[in-house]
């Protein structure tokens, strides 16, 4: 796959495919942090060592292809324009840290479910992104990729604490498991303000759509583990599954409560948002995210038929500033982005209808 296809192809596998509980859980992600024993950690290594890390993993890929993933493309961050890197971040294929660094690279699978980031905060960040609630399946795939790499390199590992990482919060398993959820019911019933502190007390953290420091646009939240030390990978994932299952149940209950107590008001809200998306000539990103959330909610509640909920997930990504500019062929001023965003949404909804 060429770089252009990664950038121009709006729909990744995790956006278009259905998975368990897809009406609420958009995606499941596993990320494993690893370092190669013979090299200094990224915050202290030289340009030469950074290149050696990339060449080491590139050689492994060329000599012994991991057949379950298939062909993978190597993208060198230095070779990409800022806008190109921003699109990859918006598609959740690379992290903001990798995009901002000067020594990074990334191996991407053709279906975009697997991303191996090199020289981010650690030498290796293995990411697996699956649609719906498939966190165990994502862990299994990530562990297989991890074993495939470890057959070729020696990881920085301590028998007492586990895998050694640049950030102390990742020492141990090096595992970050996260689930992206659409929770309009809990937001509209104001239960989310009670649930988030309770989740934090259980050793998990709730963040926005693009992780740490990002806003929960469109009622989309990421729930992930905080601790990686003192528990096994399975225990961390089981804890996350338990909490997410409860959130899914509470979201479904809140949706039914809204249907009974605010049915016509809710339906009116949904269709008003649909009208804004279908007819606006100018729309800002926050308003677009809010309306897209309402319409997806309306599809899940049965108010809107014959439109796939997946197009809303797609539009939440492609209406971001980087993708809009890539789609338009160059830089756009904020007001131009608002015009292009509105046009793109109208076109996509018309295609679906």
From TrEMBL:
Annotated EC: 2.7.14.1
Catalytic activity reported: L-arginyl-[protein] + ATP = N(omega)-phospho-L-arginyl-[protein] + ADP + H(+)
Gene3D superfamilies: Glutamine synthetase/guanido kinase, catalytic domain (3.30.590.10)
Record PANTHER family: ARGININE KINASE 1-RELATED, ARGININE OR CREATINE KINASE
Domain Phosphagen kinase C-terminal: residue ranges: 24-254
Name of the featured protein: Protein-arginine kinase
Family: Belongs to the ATP:guanido phosphotransferase family.
Motif (RDXXRA motif of the pArg binding pocket involved in allosteric regulation): 337-342
Pfam families: ATP-gua_Ptrans
Function: Catalyzes the specific phosphorylation of arginine residues in a large number of proteins. Is part of the bacterial stress response system. Protein arginine phosphorylation has a physiologically important role and is involved in the regulation of many critical cellular processes, such as protein homeostasis, motility, competence, and stringent and stress responses, by regulating gene expression and protein activity.
Key words of the record: Allosteric enzyme, ATP-binding, Kinase, Nucleotide-binding, Transferase
GO molecular function: ATP binding; creatine kinase activity; protein arginine kinase activity
Protein's GO biological process: phosphocreatine biosynthetic process
Modes of activity regulation: Appears to be allosterically activated by the binding of pArg-containing polypeptides to the pArg-binding pocket localized in the C-terminal domain of McsB.
Domain of life of the source: Bacteria
Residues where ATP binds: 27-31, 92, 125, 176-180, 207-212
One Gene Ontology CC term in the entry: extracellular space
PROSITE patterns the record matches: PHOSPHAGEN_KINASE (PS00112), PHOSPHAGEN_KINASE_C (PS51510)
């Amino acid at each position: 796959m060429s770089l252009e296809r990664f950038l121009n192809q709006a729909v990744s596998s995790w956006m278009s495919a259905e998975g368990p509980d897809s009406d609420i859980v958009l995606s499941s992600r596993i990320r494993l942090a690893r370092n190669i024993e013979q090299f200094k950690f990224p915050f202290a290594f030289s340009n030469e060592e950074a290149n050696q890390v990339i060449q080491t993993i590139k050689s492994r890929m060329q000599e012994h292809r991991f057949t379950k993933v298939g062909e993978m493309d190597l993208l060198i961050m230095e070779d990409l324009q800022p806008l190109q890197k921003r699109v990859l971040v918006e598609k959740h294929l690379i992290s903001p840290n990798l995009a901002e660094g000067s020594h990074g690279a990334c191996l991407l699978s053709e279906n975009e479910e697997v991303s191996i980031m090199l020289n981010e905060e650690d030498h290796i960040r293995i990411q697996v992104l699956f649609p719906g609630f498939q966190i165990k399946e994502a862990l299994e795939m990530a562990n297989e990729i991890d074993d495939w790499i470890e057959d070729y390199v020696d990881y920085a590992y301590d028998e007492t604490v586990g895998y050694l990482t640049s950030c102390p919060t990742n020492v141990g398993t090096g595992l970050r498991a996260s689930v992206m959820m659409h929770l309009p019911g809990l937001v509209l019933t104001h239960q989310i303000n009670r649930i988030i502190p309770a989740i934090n007390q259980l050793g998990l953290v709730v963040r926005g759509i693009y992780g740490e420091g990002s806003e929960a646009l469109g009622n989309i939240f990421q729930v992930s583990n905080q601790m990686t030390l003192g528990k096994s990978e399975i225990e961390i994932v089981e804890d996350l599954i338990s909490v997410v299952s409860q959130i899914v149940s509470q979201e479904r209950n809140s949706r039914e409560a809204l249907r009974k107590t605010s049915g016509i008001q809710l339906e009116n809200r949904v269709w008003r948002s649909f009208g804004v998306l279908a007819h606006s000539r100018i729309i800002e990103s926050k308003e677009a995210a809010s309306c897209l959330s309402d319409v997806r909610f309306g599809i899940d509640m049965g108010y809107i038929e014959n439109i796939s909920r997946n197009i809303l997930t797609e539009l939440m990504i492609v209406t971001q500033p980087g993708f809009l500019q890539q789609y338009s062929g160059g830089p756009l001023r904020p007001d131009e982005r608002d015009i292009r965003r509105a046009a793109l949404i109208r076109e996509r909804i018309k295609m679906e209808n």
